[in-house]
Design brief:
Helix content is 32%, strand content 24%. By secondary structure, the protein is an alpha+beta fold. The N and C termini lie far apart (37 Å). The model has no long low-confidence stretch (mean pLDDT 88).
Length: 90
Amino acid sequence: MSKKIPMRQCVGCGEMKSKKEMMRVLKTAEDHIVLDVTGKKNGRGAYLCISAECLKKARKNKGLERSFHMSIPEEIYESLEKEFEDSGTK
């Protein structure tokens, strides 16, 4: 029997993709928003396609705000954009 592939929905474009193809954005217990590269950290996660385009969409449609039930300051988005660029995704 084949193993079930965990699917996640992008908060930017709304597409369903396998968990491995996505970036996990994490809200920690202290309400910090960080990029979870390992996908294993504790906290509330939201998923984004590995593209700056989807991050822009999530910013515009407030996808992360909805996922985390909190407002997300501009500097968080800016640091996420920087992290996306640093991880070699355009």
